[in-house]
Amino acid sequence: MKVQILFDNEAAASQLSVGWGLSCLVDGRVLFDTGESDSFLFNNIDAMNVDVSKIKTVVISHDHWDHWGGLWGLLGKRKGMDVYGCPGFGDEFKDKVKRLRANLKELSILTKIDDNIFSSGEIPGEYGGRPMPEQALVLTSPKGLTIITGCAHPGIVKMVKEVKLSFPEKNIYAVLGGFHLMDKDRDHIAGVTKAFRDMKVKKAGPTHCSGKEAEAFFKDTYKEDFIAVKSGVTLEV
Ligand SMILES: [Zn+2]
Ligand SMILES: [Zn+2]
Asked: Three-state SS across the chain?
């Protein structure tokens, strides 16, 4: 399966936009998050020769601006798309999706979205003292599970464990996305990398809110199995 990183805070080429948030596209048809703005998203979609008309579904990880910022422009261009959120997202988000005539689906539990593509369903999390539920995107390929997270506000280890419970017979090939470790100290980060090793996660790609220290730590630990996530990168999983 193919994962194209459409938006990140770093880029593989100078014509690609960078900024806060994350967006990636799976096999050209399922978009996971949209980054902070539609102008950045569309710039990178053009630069990467992505055919927007082939995107069938959008999955939004959680109700934060840096993950849905590019959604509104996309829904303006493409009427009647399926948008997957979670019941715990705010009314403002839900109302806006409906106003733009998209089909909002609110997922509580593990749900198949397309062939070999699942949402983890809503996992309870917290941000700034408030509830911030989140869903991960889960891909099943012959290599194993690939788990992609937006910010991992519920905790990256908790999210990976939760997904693994639904696929007990599968190995975890890759975990990538925002791990939200930028406010965590070295001991905490070391604990996360150890938990990844214990769960036999083969490849790791922390980016976005993972923080520079955690990225460096993972790079050290994972070496050739570290995934450098940047706008413009395409991964085979
Ligand atoms: Zn974020
Ligand atoms: Zn967030």
From this structure: CEEEEEECCCECCCCCCCCCCCEEEECCCEEECCCCCHHHHHHHHHHCCCCHHHCCEEECCCCCHHHHCCHHHHHHHCCCCEEEECCCCCHHHHHHHHHCCCEEEECCCCEEEECCEEECCCECCEECCEECCECCEEEEECCEEEEEECCCCCCHHHHHHHHHHHCCCCCEEEEEEECCCCCCCHHHHHHHHHHHHHCCCCEEEEEHHHCHHHHHHHHHHHHHHECCCCECCEEEC
- 122-145 pLDDT, tens digit each: 999 999 999 999 999 999 999 999
Q: What is the pLDDT of residues 14-39, one digit of tens each?
A: 999 999 999 999 999 999 999 999 99
CA of 55 to the centre of ligand 2 (A): 23
2-236: CATH, from 3.30.420.110, 3.60.20.10, 3.60.15.10, 3.30.390.30: 3.60.15.10
Ligand nearest 134 Cα, by number? 2
Q: What residues have their beta carbon closer than 5 A to ion ligand 2?
A: 64, 151
Ligand nearest to the CA of 127: 2
